[in-house]
Design goal:
mainly alpha
Length: 244
């Protein structure tokens, strides 16, 4: 593996052509740092960055390609802006949802519950879970943020208000939790569009909406359960302590 080092004459010629030579230098130095770290193993890449001075562009480029490098530095592992930038690449570049693991697992827990980061993660989940429902079971854990979201234990005060609709698609019970937070004691007996849509998307992830279960719809099956419902509820109660 090799990397080309331009001469001063070539840099001058590039500059004469009117291109952004500074950005080219940033990209070229990024290549050199990665090459030395990956191939020649001539030292910690963050030591090289210390010599160069603050260059968030290079840090971002490296961590974007090699997320595992994030946890190697206290500075990068607690950099909320870096986390947001990396999360944005999942949707912008149509990456697989499994890239979410590589990002979140390398950042310090102290920044994962920032509202902007929570919002980005919820948006990624709601976009990708319909195409890849198995991720809900396959993500690398323990992961404090994903565990909190899927177990409905996300601190209510940390939830951005513009994610309420998306959260009901992850678990419709969020509708109740969020309404309780807002002291909405006048909630209608018939769920509104938000929870109906949330439930539809939730069921669709597992193909359950393909079955006709209308004989149980709009009936008081909780207070007056038949044997089938009793078994389902008993299963929930039996496993409650195992998965919370």
């Amino acid at each position: 593996m090799k990397v080309y080092i331009p001469t001063m004459e070539e840099l001058i010629e590039l500059q004469k052509l009117g291109i952004d030579v500074y950005s080219y230098l940033i990209a070229k130095v990024t290549e050199i740092i990665i090459m030395e770290d990956q191939v020649y193993e001539e030292g910690d890449m963050f030591e090289i960055l210390d010599y160069l001075g603050p260059h968030p562009e290079i840090v971002y480029a490296i961590c974007r390609l090699y997320p595992q490098k994030i946890s190697e530095s206290i500075i990068t592992s607690k950099d909320a802006d870096l986390c947001k930038k990396l999360l944005s690449t999942i949707n912008k570049e149509d990456k697989t949802i499994y890239e979410l693991d590589n990002i979140l697992m390398n950042f310090d827990e102290s920044i994962l519950f920032e509202k902007e980061i929570i919002k980005n993660v919820i948006q990624i989940l709601t976009k990708h879970l319909s195409q890849c429902p198995k991720y809900r079971f396959d993500y690398m854990g323990p992961n404090i943020l994903l565990d909190s979201i899927f177990s409905c234990e996300l601190p209510i005060e940390k939830i951005p208000s513009n994610t309420y609709t998306e959260l009901t698609t992850i678990d419709p019970v969020y509708y109740i939790k969020l309404n309780t937070k807002n002291n909405n004691n006048k909630r209608e007996k018939t769920p509104d569009y938000i929870i109906q849509r949330g439930l539809a998307i939730y069921l669709n992830r597992y193909g359950i909406d393909e079955f006709d279960l209308s004989n149980y719809n709009q009936k008081d099956i909780i207070n007056k359960p038949d044997d089938n419902v009793k078994r389902l509820i008993k299963c929930l109660e039996y496993h409650k302590n195992n998965y919370q």
